[in-house]
Amino acid sequence: MLGRAFYQRPAEDVARNLLAKIIVRESDEGTVRLRIVETEAYLGVEDPACHTFGGRRTERVGSMWGEKGHAYVYLIYGLHHCLNAVCGRKAEDAAAVLLRAAVLIDGHALVRRRRSKCRDERRLLDGPGKLCQALAVDRGFDSMDLCDPELSLRIESDQFEIPEEAVEVGPRVGIASAGEAARWQLRFFLSESVRL
DNA sequence: TCTAGGATCGGCT
DNA sequence: GCCGATCCTAGAT
């Protein structure tokens, strides 16, 4: 189980350290476990690509201004949900880490059912909207505490160790309109060779 | 009120 | 590789 302190540091550190961690989702249908293999850091009020840029404090982004270690879930393109972990050193940072891709550990049958439109096994969980489909996460999970072992969505760690050289870095995806920030190296992913 | 556009996905060429 | 789907949010009027 990742405690509160894990999230109380800069988004860049949290994004890097969430790699290889495990998302657990329990429901009546069964339990799904996924290992995170790709993340993006959104730095908060100073980051033009971040929903809280310039101190934006609207209803949608309310959870980003709340306690660290809670979820921020929003709808994109009117179709897909994206799951983030709220983080940052202090409350007014309003930063978060987007969970972009994962590999399947437990709940294969359930995930295939939830992702039944997917025709290519290799592309089962390679996007933020796909993760939310597999986990059955929607706006109802916004602001949920990911550190609470009693709740149905949380992030845990296991003994899986990743060598430093297995972490790759690149620019964030889909934020061309964010100007210079589109080039910031805030996307972290595990190289194919170490994915289980 | 109105409107433009988005941290994407899947199907088709 | 390209394009349409689909609807909510934020910012402008």
Features:
196 residues, alpha+beta, 8 strands, 29% strand, globular, DNA-binding
Q: What is this structure's SSE topology?
A:
Layout: H1 4-7, H2 11-18, E1 22-27, E2 30-42, E3 71-76, E4 80-87, E5 95-106, H3 108-114, H4 128-135, E6 153-156, E7 167-170, E8 187-190
Antiparallel strand pairs: 1-2, 1-6, 2-5, 2-8, 3-4, 4-5, 7-8
The protein binds a DNA duplex (13 and 13 nucleotides) through residues 40, 42, 49-51, 56, 58-60, 74-80, 82, 84, 98, 100, 117-119, 123, 127-130, 133, 172-175, 177-178.
Protein architecture, described:
The model has no long low-confidence stretch (mean pLDDT about 95). The chain is built from 4 helices and 8 strands. The chain is globular and about 45 Å long. About 15% of the residues lie in helices and about 30% in strands. With about 200 residues, the chain is of the alpha+beta class. It starts with a helix and ends in a 6-residue tail after the last strand. Strands 1, 2, 3, 4, 5, 6, 7 and 8 form an 8-stranded antiparallel beta sheet that branches. It has helices at about 5, 10-20, 110-115, 130-135, and strands at about 20-25, 30-40, 70-75, 80-85, 95-105, 155, 165-170, 185-190. The chain binds a DNA duplex (13 and 13 nucleotides) through strand 3, strand 4 and helix 4.
